[in-house]
Design brief:
Elements: H1 3-14, H2 19-34, E1 43-46, H3 59-68, E2 73-79, E3 86-90, E4 97-99, E5 105-107, E6 112-113, E7 120-123, E8 127-128, E9 134-135, H4 141-148, E10 154-158, E11 179-181, E12 186-188
Parallel strand pairs: 1-2, 1-7, 7-10, 10-11
Antiparallel strand pairs: 2-3, 3-6, 4-5, 8-9, 11-12
Length: 190
């Protein structure tokens, strides 16, 4: 399938779950995530889930990572003023958040951080395939952001669904995930 066909398919499929079904699947995703043998992490970048798009929230994952990695720095995305790229901003108790023109929640204040510091990036997605290629919302922000990160930084996505066999229109600049965690399994790629 093409990226656009997969976007359409999974945007629709996400809408069929009740809140209680999503909660159960999110709990199962956390259990699967906790099985990963991750190194000690100092810098973790995460997306801020959009509830209205039924994105998988990362709150419980972050709590687990903060418990497991005392002193970890959590970073969140900020769409850069040129609107073509994303900045990596420290997220702590002093960070104020607002909705931007695209409907994403992002920081109003905060300290930018070099993306090369990221040890782990929690990447939003709509769909993914058996090679770890992902389909996002089509703006390319995460593709450009991941290109700025270290090649050895772990890239992990979360999905309620199993992978597609193949995404037909991947590009050379697409950066695959290392893992995708579902309610019933953790897929490892490459």
């Amino acid at each position: 399938m093409t990226k656009q066909a997969l976007r359409n398919k999974y945007k629709l499929q996400r809408t069929v779950f009740t809140d209680s079904e999503k909660e159960k699947m999110q709990d199962l995703i956390l259990i699967q995530f906790q099985k990963l043998q991750l190194p000690f992490l100092q810098y973790v970048h995460t997306y801020l889930a959009m509830e209205e798009r039924s994105e998988i929230p990362t709150d419980a994952i972050l709590s687990y990572l903060q418990f497991r990695n005392p002193g970890v720095t959590v970073l969140i995305p900020l769409i850069a003023p040129n609107r073509e790229s994303m900045l990596n901003v420290v997220w702590d108790e002093t960070t104020l958040l607002k909705r931007n023109h695209l409907g994403f929640t992002e920081p109003v204040n905060g300290t930018p951080s070099n993306p090369l510091l990221n040890d782990l990036i929690l990447v939003p997605l709509l769909a993914y395939d058996l090679k770890g290629n992902r389909v996002g919302y089509g703006k390319g922000y995460y593709d450009r952001f991941l290109a700025e990160c270290r090649p050895d930084a772990l890239k992990i996505g979360f999905s309620y669904f199993e992978p597609e066999e193949q995404i037909n229109d991947t590009e050379d600049f697409d950066i695959p995930l290392n893992y995708c965690v579902t309610p019933h399994r953790c897929y490892e790629f490459g």
